[in-house]
Design goal:
alpha/beta; Rossmann fold; eleven-stranded mixed sheet; 22 strands; binds adenosine-5'-diphosphate; binds magnesium ion
């Protein structure tokens, strides 16, 4: 079908509900897809929108009661006259006559405005073209035109990648991170719970890892487990017991199987013993416990139960009495210089390890960024601090409504880069995440979700939910997603780019090659 072919004309509709288009060729209904990006040519303006629904209708109820069964001839005669198809279109943007930039649609086209497929030019007009800060994660399902994300807009806020397990979230995130690393505007700190981002898994060499792609100078690996990944020149990190606050224990309530009273007990212990409360609590003898309980009114059984639960933390092999902050200083210094960091967990990949370590490191790092940004603001040099994107898999564990209130990740998601730190959350269960946090996300990349609650949750705070709901319910189970939010001018469905080792290597080579050429040229012309 030629791209400019007239598909139908607008017959009715409204600004709030969308436009109904009578399709000219009744068979065209089979060629249009819910979610396709289409164009309506009004008399003065050009509207860009999305197909949000398709329907069949008849002018005569007799046809539905007694449809022609066996006559292809009758089918042909009736289709397009008494039996016809319609499409619902939701115009998001309008290109006004004489303008080059599409704007949010505030008008609707008149009756009989013409619907047509979008062309490559329409895509470019709306989504821009790929360049140093525009990176395409894929193409529209039925076309071969890259749909770029505006990475500068993207990193102004926290963002999310959602989709059920196996739908391609982690591969997509890796692709997006490759784009962010190439654009070189932010640093990335990635908590890699499943040890999959640094290098390709042995059974899938195509899925080249970020450390392989960019080299271990630009992407450095830190690990909790000193036995893994020596080849990657990974550095080992340890955690200090004196860094753990009662709030961290609360976040681990499920993993440590704690009941709610433990929080109060932990707060009492922290108040009595200060920073070394865990070590002190562990060292208490029977008299010590009695004395503490008499003083605070806490039940002895609760203190003893908490002590035995804390033993699980103390025994973690990466745990030290007190934290050696030099390694965190080292990580922060590297992030500030534009190095990207992947934190791996090796053998210690339980939720207990992952949540504890991600939480402690992030708190410490955020604290430092806050101090530095406030100091820089005083000196008027805030922009010199390189923004940081923290990537968090299994994000719902940290961002349930209860956890989001107190965990550092909840704070970062709400702050919107006030202190130059944002999150990229990756998750398969958005319905477990605090709604306020979901509505704060700037851009959401949403893959297939089968649970209705997850779909509702992920659309929190998004305009035009009904159209998107339909679209999400119809994504193919793999490598398809919808992008909504600030990094794209309007919601768009794409087929994710195939992640292939040689293509990514080529991409990195050409982009960084070009950058070096430009630098050389600037040197030559004396800039
Ligand atoms: N863009 C892609 N290119 C190539 N393979 C992909 C792509 N997306 C997903 N896959 C395949 O699907 C598998 C599951 O993807 P993954 O990202 O691990 O899913 P999730 O993180 O959502 O559970 C991957 O191991 C890979 O084989
Ligand atoms: Mg995954």
């Amino acid at each position: 079908m030629p791209a400019q072919e007239l598909l139908g004309v607008v017959t009715d509709g409204s600004f709030s509900q969308g436009l109904r288009v009578r399709l000219l060729d009744p068979a065209a209904v089979e060629r249009l897809r819910v979610g396709s990006f289409v164009v309506v040519e009004g008399d003065e303006h050009r509207y860009f929108g999305m197909v949000t629904d398709l329907a069949l209708a008849t002018t005569d109820s007799a046809l539905t009661a007694d449809p022609p069964l066996h006559s292809p001839f009758l089918h042909r005669v009736l289709r397009g006259t008494h039996a016809y198809a319609t499409a619902e279109i939701r115009p998001s943007l309008v290109l006004q006559a004489g303008s080059e930039q599409p704007q949010p649609a505030r008008t609707i086209p008149p009756h009989f405005a013409r619907l047509r497929q979008a062309t490559a030019e329409d895509f470019a007009c709306v989504f821009g073209r790929e360049d140093a800060t525009h990176f395409a994660l894929g193409t529209p399902p039925a076309m071969d035109i890259p749909v770029p994300l505006d990475l500068e807009e993207l990193v102004k806020r926290s963002n999310g990648v959602f989709g059920q397990s196996g739908s391609g979230k982690s591969v997509l995130t890796r692709l997006l991170l490759a784009g962010l690393i190439l654009a070189d505007r932010v640093s990335v700190l990635l908590f890699d719970m499943h040890n999959e981002y640094a290098r390709a898994p042995s059974d899938q060499p195509e899925l080249i890892g970020l450390a392989e792609l960019f080299g271990t100078t630009r992407v450095q690996v830190y690990t909790l487990d000193d036995r893994t990944d020596r080849s990657a020149a990974a550095r080992t990190i340890q955690i200090g017991l004196d860094q753990i606050e009662p709030e961290d224990i609360e976040l681990l309530a499920e993993e440590l199987n704690l009941n709610p009273t433990f929080a109060t007990v932990a707060h009492h212990l922290r108040a009595s013993f200060g920073k070394h409360w865990i070590a002190e609590t562990r060292a208490l003898d029977a008299d010590g416990v009695k004395e503490f309980c008499a003083r605070t009114g806490v039940a002895e059984s609760s203190v003893n139960a908490l002590r035995s639960k804390l033993a699980r933390l103390v025994q973690r092999p990466y745990m030290q009495e007190s934290l050696d902050t030099s390694i965190i200083d080292e990580i922060i210094a590297k992030l500030q210089k534009g190095t990207h960091i992947i934190v791996q967990f090796g053998r210690y990949d339980s939720f207990l390890d992952y949540m504890l370590v991600a939480n402690l490191l992030t708190r410490r790092i955020h604290e430092r960024y806050t101090e530095e940004v406030l100091e820089a603001q005083r000196l008027g040099s805030e922009m010199s601090i390189r923004p940081l994107v923290i990537v968090l898999e299994e994000a719902h564990k940290f961002l349930t409504p209860e956890a989001a209130r107190q965990s550092i990740f909840g704070t970062i998601a709400r702050e919107m880069r006030k202190y130059r730190v944002t999150l990229l959350i990756v998750d398969q269960r958005p319905s477990s995440i605090d709604r306020e946090i979901l509505s704060q996300l700037g851009t959401k990349i949403i893959g297939p979700l089968s649970d209705q609650q997850d779909i509702e949750a992920v659309l929190t705070g998004v305009a035009d939910r009904s159209g998107l709901r339909n679209l999400l319910a119809n994504l193919s189970p793999r490598q398809e997603c919808v992008i909504v939010g600030h990094a794209v001018r309007m919601p768009v469905a794409i087929r994710t780019r195939e992640y292939r080792r040689h293509e990514l290597l080529d991409l990195v080579r050409t982009r960084t090659g070009k950058a070096t050429d430009e630098r050389r040229l600037r040197l030559l012309i004396g800039e």
